[in-house]
Amino acid sequence: MSFNQAQAMYQQAMKQTTSPEKEKPKKTFSSKQAVSAPRPASVKANPYQQQAMQTASPGELTLLLYNGCLKFLQKAEKAMNEGKVEEKNKLMIRAQNIIGELMITLKTDSEIGNSMMQMYDYMYRRLIEANVSNDTKVLQEIYGLVEEFRDTWKQAMQKDRELRFREGGRA
After folding, report:
1. pLDDT tens digits for 158-168?
2. pLDDT at residue 105 is higher than 60
3. Mind listing the UniProt keywords for this protein, alphabetically (predicted)?
4. Is 98 a member of any domain?
């Protein structure tokens, strides 16, 4: 994904949340219905992370998703190298769920959105392959792609903030 594409996607996301016009709600499946596995009772989110997620803009939420996916991929690779099959599987599923969430929330009404959807689909399928075959090379490939998406998205957010600040808007 190019920087300009990421910036366009970020600006589109920001316009949708700051626009005073309200669209009719569309019937869609919630992300929990589509891809999320139930969280085990022993796993509790950090209260600071919960607060950050509740107050984050759509652009910041996307950044949090990318960072979470990278974290789970790192831990999954470690578990894979240590032969901890069950732990690796759980971590890989969490990374897959994040990619699935990115797919669900992506607007595909533009060429950029369609291109990103194809990349997300590719990453999702490759994560399944890596999980089944215990292939760390595939895991590293997907890590690199997610990292590139994350870095590009972060640059787009920063550039957008700079532009809004210069135009007298709130950063």
Report:
1. 988 888 887 66
2. yes
3. Bacterial flagellum biogenesis, Chaperone, Cytoplasm
4. yes
Range of the domain at 96: 57-163
Q: Looking at this protein, which amino acid is placed at residue 120?
A: Y
Residue 99 in contact with residue 123, Cβ under 8 Å? yes
Please tell me the distance from the alpha carbon of residue 147 to that of residue 74, in angstroms, as a whole number. Answer: 11
Residues in the chain: 171
Whether 8 maps to a domain, the answer reads: no
Q: Is residue 95 part of a domain?
A: yes
Do residues 6 and 66 touch, judged by C-beta distance below 8 A? Answer: no
First to last CA, the chain: 25
CATH classification at residue 132: 1.20.120.340
DSSP string for residues in 4-38: HHHHHHHHHHHHHHH-S--PPPP----HHHHTPPP
Residue 101 lies in a domain: yes
Number of domains present in the structure of the chain: 1
The pTM (predicted TM-score) of the whole model is 0.69
What pLDDT, on a 0 to 100 scale, did the predictor assign at position 7? 58
Give, as one character, the DSSP assignment of residue 42: T
79-101: pLDDT as tens digits: 999 999 999 999 999 999 999 99
Task: Determine the residue type at 76.
Answer: A
